[in-house]
Amino acid sequence: MKNIIRFGTVVMIVSVMFLAFIPSVSAGIFGDVNEDTYVDIQDITRVERMILGYDPVTMLADMNEDTNINMQDVTAIELIILELKPFPGGNLNVLMMFGPTSTLDPANGWNGWYMRTAGIYETLFKYNEKMELTPELATGYTQVNSTVYTINLREGVLFHDGTPFNADAVVSSIERVLNISNSRSSEYDHIASVVAIDDHTVRITTNEPYAPAIASLTDPLVSIVSPDANNPDTNPVGTGPFMYADHEFGASLSVVRNPNYWDGIVKLESAKITYISDGGTRALMLESGDADMSRGIPYPEVSTVQGDPDLDVVSKETLRMYFIFVNTEKAPLNDVRVRQAINYAINRDVIVDTALEGVGGVPAKGVFPSIFPWANDELTGYSYNRDTALSLLADAGITDSNGDGMLEYGGEDFKLNIKTYTSRPAMQPGTEVIETQLEDIGIDVTVELLEAPAVKEAMTNGDYDLAFYSYGVAPSGDPDNFLTHHFDSTAGYKENGWTRYSNTAVDTLLASARQETNSYNRKDYYDQVQEIIVEESPEMFIFHEMELVGYNTKVIGYEIYPNEISFLTKDMYVGQ
Q1: Which of 198, 243, 265, 544 has the smallest number of Cβ neighbours within 10 A?
Q2: What are the DSSP E strand ranges found in 258-348?
Q3: Closest among 50, 572, 502 to 314, alpha carbons compared
Q4: Please, is 401 exposed, middle or buried when counting C-beta atoms within 10 Å of its C-beta (0-12, 13-18, 19+)?
Q5: What's the whole-number average pLDDT of the chain?
Q6: What is the pTM of this model?
Q7: Where are the extended beta strands (E) located within 343-423?
């Protein structure tokens, strides 16, 4: 059999190459002949050279999977490049710990995170995998004055239902969050108004100068929802690379590729996200081939997954912090020396090496990890020092007066209760190591494992000593969110109510930082706040989480985003 191939005006007669002579590859996709994760003109050239006998043939050149390498394969690649044929990206099965349990509405609680993870919704601005603030559905903004922002919107974008994306959709989406009935509306109290100037321009006015205004628009809470969506609770309609297919609350969420995505070809054909809380089950499903990816691989399973030639684990430090809330109104924890002593008694390196098996986290020196640009890199934190801990406790009147190895406070053994929850795999083992370390210096420690709502209720009522918890410390990519919620005693957020912490200097610095538009000055304010809260220890920062994602090596194009918001992207696909 012969094929005629035209290069310009030259006609060549070539023989068809047969797949029997093609070596296998570990992972790739038909059409991506040079394995650079793109299907483009370079792949056409490579196939033509294979047909002419200039290059060795590979199975990825057999675009139409007929066991022959010929001009039909070139044509098939051309159709993909011209977007006349769908990208053969395959179907992905993903396992995650958490998912929506009662609604798919991104403006309800934290459900926007799940919808963003699934690639359904987008925001005006976003953070990329390097935590750089970039436009998404916006193209940019202009700060008109200290309280007015003009935001330019992307043109030619369609919602999944075909409705054009425009300024009215932005206004209605943000106003849904501003509505007093929204449980998180107080987080956007800084917005006085949002109005449409024209179809592709929005003006946002804040009540007073508010430096994090643009960053606040990256939170999935303010995802842009189609104004024609009839029921966002069960039928989410966004602009993202993936469209909603079906769901089962608390169990799974399925999406399909958006064929009209504004930012180019979406490679995956579909994805199903299954929510399984048990880490061991997730690991077994990955190892058995019942899943292609699993978020949150249990620490003991990392080596097993990595030992499988078809599997691997990717890890990256994230903005998730594991830390201890302290009831600063309860004696003797109202004494800063006692809080500092407990900090010195905790060996963070040991926690990472044992509870996290050396793979699950990075010891913390302060609230923000070093990967975050707003971290105060001058902080030294609390290195383990048993003698310093005991000395500080003695200064506070807590000593082992009878020589029984137990410290006494007020004539009785010094006792501490630590409350925590178990839905995140690091919580229980982390707490148990902390318990051992505090007992080592003579503190009588009890640990209570509760459901997260019960821990919150106890903290709200002041019925606790310490509570081991986990938060993302920069949900909007800006330092103000966490620092204000937790340490500004004038702001009225629940987290500050849990610690009962108050420091006038911290309040003043945070207020100044929120109104400061110069980033260098803002950084100085936040650096000072971080220094104070580390010294006064109303919260004790233990470690920053390393995200561990197990995957089949056929999954290509996945990136870990440190803010944990983005997961499914247009560039991912399942290879051969």
Answers
A1: 198
A2: 270-275, 293-295, 311-326
A3: 572
A4: exposed
A5: 92
A6: 0.86
A7: 361-363, 408-409, 412-413, 415-421
